[in-house]
Amino acid sequence: MLMFHCLQDNFKRALDREGVEVQIGGTSKTVLFRRQRNGQDSADWVDVYSATEDNLRPGNILTTGADNYLLVQRDHRENGVYLRYNAVRCNQTISLTREMKSPVPDEWGDYPTITVNYFTSPAYLATQLTGLNKTAIGNVIGGNMVVIMPGVEITPNAVLQCNTFDNEGKFTACDYQIESIDSTDVFTDNEGSIHGILRLQIKPE
After folding, report:
1. Residue 61: is its pLDDT beyond 90?
2. What's the CA gap between 147 and 205, in Å, rounded?
3. Are the C-beta atoms of 200 and 180 separated by less than 8 Å?
4. What's the pTM?
């Protein structure tokens, strides 16, 4: 019990001294950010420490200033005081679109096929699978362009849109075909809401 209280006091002091206030779905929390301990990891990857009672989980987006961090993995070693997460700084805002029949008829009384955006979120676009990034990205087979994003239903005809540099060096929106989906770390709660992390292998359309 004494060790628990010492750990609790030390963590509280660390939060008071170095804690960063983040927004998670409209709720404010204070967490600790630490560089990855493996020196080979990309600078985009960090460790996040949060009080156990904050009840954070993979798939949460942490926003601080202009930066968004996606919680990817949780260290399952628990001490009752804090939890450690593997997180990545998002470098994209992605959208998922799908085609559907318009609910409104056109001037000729037909219901044309329209494209609708059904999900938008910060995400991480990875183009190299190296070091810890390969472990965190998961078992997406083939290719070298992967998106890590919060868990969401992927419809059969979904197209992923994100911004990239074109041949003229301009930052522009591009459509990508989803080649494979790793949903190993996606789960559904008792209310039917989807949580966790999706890993998508994509290629330009």
Report:
1. yes
2. 15
3. yes
4. 0.84
